């Protein structure tokens, strides 16, 4: 008789209930996936709503103004001009929104992650001290990092670094985006206005988006001034009266004059980057203006590389099926479970942790570090200790308080009533801590009792002082 699913062991039930997942469902980055992983957005994709509003709102105002002027125009030439301006603005706005969507909803060039470091990465390890982990004793452990590799690009040596998050060596011109938590091929920057990284696969659309936005701003700005100028002619050349009657045009002039400085300046800057075959990240970090750029070609070839080459397919197949547990969540830190202390450091730690012994009795570390110089003797105490014998503490304790400013009266004064046995115990020579502890364990019971009594009497007299 076949057992029912309820009678099966828990592991078998979990395997039956476990459903296969796609890669985007187990992806460890911060991306937002829609339409089954076909659309990829950044974690700040909500900024697209603001960007879309900043594009559509002035366009609607401009179209409303052109439509009203079209109906009130007396000449046919003005009607044709207003109609052409209306059509151009609508087409440009649609193109601008399409380029914005293609930039923000497209895979920018995300590189796949590894579940473990490749073998060649473990062969290139570098030991260094890092303050990222502090132990209780104030020491920093010795961590191990993977060294960068040298790659030859067009006759130039380029260093490629290992990404500890993605567990892979990043190809040249790649970088890890801290916002999206992904390595992106030919990383340019992360744009908060489009809510996505700008990389190899969407840089073309990003440039077309900012270039179209610049053209739209300039076009609206010019036609708004033309409307104000025509109104000035109808009102005897009064600028103030023309601006009052053309309130929408005045608002568009102010808005476009502000926005064009941002998108226009960004367009000019990226024209320069394309002509020199740089990315924003490379321009700010490597300063190729001051040294050779291994990727630079002729200006025509640089533009052709951006606009007329085929966009490569995605490196990470986000919609592919993965096994259960193929990608574990969480940040991977290598060698975190290994003992990162060298043998010599272990010996130093053991020496530092040993207790100072006085007469076979361990002295706590807190008592060793007390600044006895802060205690001052009163006049009564000074009269009281006149004629007393001077007894030195063991050198081990003295050395422990050497840098703490130990007072001579506090560390050398003892009572006259101290017996010879007590003095012999206290004036014992300086010995290693391990030898003292072993001898204390082998001493007869009677001698240990005498030592404890002598120490108690000494502590009582010290308290009275």
From TrEMBL:
Name assigned to this protein: S-acyltransferase
Source organism: Panicum virgatum
The reaction(s) this protein catalyses: L-cysteinyl-[protein] + hexadecanoyl-CoA = S-hexadecanoyl-L-cysteinyl-[protein] + CoA
PANTHER family: S-ACYLTRANSFERASE, ZINC FINGER DHHC DOMAIN CONTAINING PROTEIN
InterPro entries according to UniProt: Palmitoyltrfase_DHHC, PFA4/ZDH16/20/ERF2-like
UniProt biased composition (Basic and acidic residues): 449-459
Molecular function GO labels: protein-cysteine S-palmitoyltransferase activity
Membrane topology reported for the UniProt record: Multi-pass membrane protein
Polar residues: bias regions: 430-445
Start and end residues of each stretch annotated as Disordered: 419-465
EC number in record: 2.3.1.225
Transmembrane spans: 45-64, 84-102, 205-226, 247-273
Lineage of producing organism: Eukaryota, Viridiplantae, Streptophyta, Embryophyta, Tracheophyta
Pfam families on file: DHHC
Recorded GO CC terms: endoplasmic reticulum; Golgi apparatus; membrane
Subcellular location: Membrane
Main location: membrane
Keyword Acyltransferase part of the UniProt annotation: yes
Alphabetic keyword roster: Acyltransferase, Membrane, Transferase, Transmembrane, Transmembrane helix
Domain Palmitoyltransferase DHHC: 161-285
Any one GO biological process: protein targeting to membrane
Protein family (similarity comment): Belongs to the DHHC palmitoyltransferase family.
Domain commentary: The DHHC domain is required for palmitoyltransferase activity.
